[in-house]
Structures are given as C-alpha cells and as structure tokens.
Design a protein that fits this description.
Blueprint lengths: L1 H29 L1 H4 L13 H11 L9 E3 L8 E5 L3 E5 L5 E5 L6 H11 L3 H27 L16 H28 L3 H8 L3 H9 L15 H11 L4 E6 L8 E6 L10 E5 L6 E5 L6 H6 L2 H5 L5 H38 L8
Antiparallel strand pairs: 1-2, 1-5, 2-3, 3-4, 5-6, 6-7, 7-8
Helix pairs in contact: 1-4, 1-5, 1-12, 3-9, 4-5, 5-6, 6-12
C-alpha cells in the first residue's frame, strides 16, 4: 500500500498540470455554442432540403475558393463552418453568406481551446501526451479509491480545502476525488480511448479496433476527377431519399484524386453530434457509390460512437452538461492542488521541520 501511495503522489505531482489544462479547457468547450458571439449564431437550425441545397451551392460556387468541408448548423449553433486547407476557415449563415473568416485557428478562441484540449497546441505529439495523461488519470482514479478505503471513516465532503495547508489539501483531494471518481473514470476513459485504440480493445474486445476502422473506412473504388461544378442537388436529394429523418451534417470534398465526396448524416437515434451515417458519391457525376447506416454498424463501432458524446456532454441535455461541468472543474482542482501541494507546500513544511519550527496540527 505504501508503494501505491508513492506512485499515486509522484505521478500526480508530475502529470497534474496536464490534467488541469485538459479539465479546464474541456469544461469551457462544453458550453462553446453558448459563448461564440457572432451574427446568426443563435439562428434556428434549417434542415429544409431546398434551403440546404441553395446554401451548399452558394458556399461551393467558386471552384478556386471552395471549402474542403462544410459542417452544417446544429440545433444549438446557427452557423455553418467552412474549412479551407490546414487551419483557415469561415463561418457562414444558413443562406451561405460568409459571416467571418480566419487564416489561423488562433484567431478563433473556440478553435484555440479545441486545439489546446485535444493536442496541447503540439499536434500529434501533444495528442499522445494528453492521452498518456489520461492513462495516468485512470490510474489515479483506481489507486485513489483503494487508498481512500483505508480512511473512509473520516470522509467529509468539501468543494474547497478548509485551508491551503498540505494536510488540508490532501484531505480535500482524497474526499473530493472519491465523490467524482465514477464520472472522472468515464470522462478520462472515453477521452483516452478516442486516441489510444488499444484501450478500446480492453473493453470492447481484441478485434474491436480493426472492426471500428473497417466500419468507418470509405469504399476503395477508383473514381474520376472532381467536377468543376459537382451536382450538389443530386447528392443531397439522394441522401434525403435514403435517410429521410436524418440531418445533413458534414459535406467533405475528396482529399485525393479518385476518391469520393463524403456526406455524413445524423439519424435521430444517433448520439454522435455529426452522426456516422455516411454516403459516398462519385466526384465527377454525383452518383451514389455507397451508403452506410450507422444503426447497422457492428456493435463495437456503435459502442465507440457513444464515447465522444459521453465525453463532451453532447447527449443528456442541460442536466448532463452541468454535471460534466462539475466533473471538469473537479479534475482541474484535483490536478492543480495536487501539483501545488506536492512541489511547493511540501517543501515549505519540510523546511520548517528542518529549522525546528512547529507545524500546526490540522
């Protein structure tokens, strides 16, 4: 038990700041749709087929400046988001008129926070660091629950420590951690699994990662070049005919020559905000190549599709968003106070003991 306690404290002292960044940025992102203050951001979502077609044709009209992808407005955010190249993008109203444009993600606070939360502003390396911190977080939850059991009779719940002394912070850390342990485990597990697929295999089975990748991969057909004016109307109408109750969510141009145009839809039964019901169209003619119903995917793929909405509070309405807000704040508090007490308050206490000063009892 002493070894477990040492591992818990030292790992927390080293990783706590990363968990603070992830917890705080994630908490703010939960409410992103509410604080993006732009014209038409609060407009009611439009999913009428003729309106979607007209807006798409408007946004894709110029072959020299068309976006690589369009994420259509949701019921909580009334703007379409356009992607241009690596980091450039724009927001457009639901008629297809540009509202604002940016050349770098740092120009938009919500995109900056998203990059901070997912990649720690360091690309793939930061993503691996964040996921590794998530694995440490799972260790903290499990080891913390084991260590708490020894002192369960002294449990007292406080939102904040009684005082900023090391014993009070440790007491608070232990008891706050056990209260939020189940939800912390859920948030950390779902976030880590989306980056480290081997973690998925531990829960969904050894074949799950391959099944998931195969379920989301597009058709291998070799197709013609992208037309100067693709038949957007034909594609959108075909999608509506196949899935009449589904929302049009993301339209993506092929990243390579000979690849299809991709259209993602969200059926009412899907939790994933952008859905995983996918249709692929020939880039030259607009004919349907393949349609894949998310509700008929293998069980492992359907289970994986629930991880993001659970992690980002995209399901469960306001009540679940508020719960996840508390979880994110708890993670931030646990991480920051753990680092502070381990590296600073501990040293102060040690110096006072070494000089013969009395350390107040808690």
């Amino acid at each position: 038990m002493k070894t477990l306690d040492l591992l818990h404290r030292w790992t927390g002292g080293l990783v706590g700041l990363v968990l603070l960044v992830l917890g705080l940025s994630g908490t703010i992102l939960i409410h992103r749709d509410a604080w993006v203050m732009l014209p038409h951001a609060s407009d009611e979502q439009v999913q009428d087929t003729p309106a979607i077609i007209a807006a798409t044709e408007q946004m894709m009209a110029d072959p020299a400046a068309r976006p690589s992808a369009i994420s259509f407005a949701t019921d909580g955010f009334g703007l379409n988001r356009l992607s241009f190249g690596r980091e450039a993008g724009a927001y457009a109203d639901q008629a297809g008129n540009i509202v604002t444009h940016w050349d770098d993600a740092w120009e938009r606070p919500e995109l900056f926070l998203f990059d901070l939360h997912h990649h720690l502003l360091a690309g793939e390396t930061g993503e691996i660091v964040a996921a590794s911190a998530g694995l440490c977080g799972l260790f903290f939850v499990i080891s913390g629950a084991i260590l708490w059991w020894r002192t369960r009779s002294t449990f007292r719940f406080r939102l904040l420590p009684a005082r900023l002394s090391r014993p009070a912070i440790l007491w608070h850390h232990r008891d706050l951690g056990i209260v939020f342990a189940p939800l912390l485990a859920l948030v950390i597990f779902t976030g880590t699994t989306m980056v480290f697929r081997p973690v998925t295999a531990l829960v969904l089975g050894p074949s799950a990662p391959a099944t998931i990748e195969r379920s989301f991969k597009g058709p291998e057909a070799k197709l013609g070049a992208l037309a100067e004016k693709p038949d957007w109307a034909r594609m959108i109408r075909t999608a509506r005919e196949r899935f009449p109750d589904a929302e049009i969510r993301i339209l993506s141009l092929p990243k390579e020559a000979g690849k299809p145009i991709t259209l993602r839809m969200k059926q009412p039964e899907e939790w994933l905000p952008n859905g995983r019901t996918t249709l692929w169209f020939a880039p030259d003619t607009g004919r349907l190549i393949e349609a894949r119903d998310a509700l008929k995917l293998p069980g492992a793929a359907q289970a994986f599709n629930t991880f993001y909405p659970l992690h980002a509070a995209k399901v469960g309405g306001l009540a679940y968003r508020l719960v996840m807000t508390l979880v994110g704040l708890a993670l931030s508090l646990l991480g920051s106070l753990a680092v502070w007490s381990f590296w600073f308050r501990r040293n102060r206490t040690a110096r006072r003991v070494a000089t013969g000063q009395t350390v107040p009892a808690e």
